[in-house]
């Protein structure tokens, strides 16, 4: 049984039966049969079903947000924002899918009668193994385009967002997705591993680098398509020509939103030495004002961590940094109350000898380091194996572009951060992943091309 614990009270919310070798085998078989019929329904019908699913999300947003808050501790205003933003993202897929999967004629030679065409066929049956931190975003980025393009989906939500996963599966049925096409697989990582023992046609994974490596290894046994959206250690660089108070406020939000548990959260900040003292003063003051506590309250900005084990990771990073000379300006301790609460922490004068500047924190902790110029910032920003996003704050676009073009990351930001758009591809490099979601490429990725050589005579 899977026990769901409320991370802000440590009370048991519910127990769910998890999947087994037998139930998984049955669901895989069902999905295989159902997929062929689903791929043969008209695109218009598949679009209609997903549009209904989106409408159900809109109608039930409040209840879904409360459920998410109860099982993973996301502050209610942020849970609501996630569900709402998801309902605004799905229409992008609905509008684009027809154009993206249309058969293309790339040669039509009237003299020889030769035509060449590319058609886009579904992959087949794909696994969607998901993280808990934004279950609606990371889930829908995969299963919506996968379903629209005619695939069947074996959806394994995280064990820390299993009730949300269950609710999503229920809404899929209500929206009219035929039986077997969208299958819920419940359980921990062991259940995910069992799922990958089957010869599926693809696995689309969101989670940590360590698990991503295991998923890729398991998938290699059957040579299925693998996409991995993994962690990050996303840097921001603040140049000496900005409005310091405005940028400090933006970066506090980029760092601590969702209690720092975002794949593209700002995880380290480099500040030009000329404005370093002023920036630090604004930043720390703002962090001191963040409302930490009960995530069901409208006024709460920082809730509990979703997982108890992460408290120790954060404590180790802080102890390591302080031992190596960093100054802990604020926070950095567990709150004396039930729940996995951690006071948001700011470490100053950090160096790259400290784990907090090179390993993912995935919680409310940030290191801030002064730099002497843009060249040093570029060198430090590039000094991790990750490559998800990088941000630069400066009044000059030319200066930002010169820095950002040197970043080996899938996404770059000028004067913004922690932002995802359905119109742009979302991808990581290095330890941050392989493949992409979102944008029109993130629809096409759920299809395989077929090359047609057609000769009339
Ligand atoms: P995780 O790697 O612990 O788990 C992810 C999923 O994999 C869960 O559903 C889990 O049950 C499953 N799993 C665990 N072991 C498995 C195995 N051996 N085989 C198959 N499945 C297995 O990650 P998490 O704690 O859920 O998520 C946090 C991580 O996800 C962070 O590193 C974060 O940066 C990353 N993330 C990345 C993105 C992105 O878009 N790049 C988005 C969200 C989260």
Describe this entry's structure for a reader:
β10, α9 (244-256) and β11 (266-272) form a beta-alpha-beta unit. The mean pLDDT is 98. The N and C termini lie far apart (64 Å). The protein folds into two domains: 2-230 and 432-455, Aldehyde Dehydrogenase, Chain A, domain 1 (3-Layer(aba) Sandwich), CATH 3.40.605.10; 234-421, Aldehyde Dehydrogenase, Chain A, domain 2 (3-Layer(aba) Sandwich). It is globular, with a radius of gyration of 23 Å. The protein is built from 14 helices and 22 strands. With 457 residues, it is α/β, with parallel strands linked by helices. The site of nicotinamide-adenine-dinucleotide has 31 residues, from α7 and α8.
Indicate the structural class.
alpha/beta
Task: Tell me, briefly, the overall form.
Answer: globular
> Number of helical runs?
14
The CATH superfamily of the largest domain turns out to be Aldehyde Dehydrogenase, Chain A, domain 1
Distance from first to last alpha carbon:
64 Å
| Spatial arrangement of strands, main beta sheet | 12-13-14-11-10-16-17
Mean pLDDT: 98
Oligomer: single chain
Q: Into which percent range does the helicity of residues fall?
A: 40-55%
- Approximately how much beta-strand content do the residues carry? 15-25%
Ligands and ions found: nicotinamide-adenine-dinucleotide
Whole-angstrom Rg: 23 Å
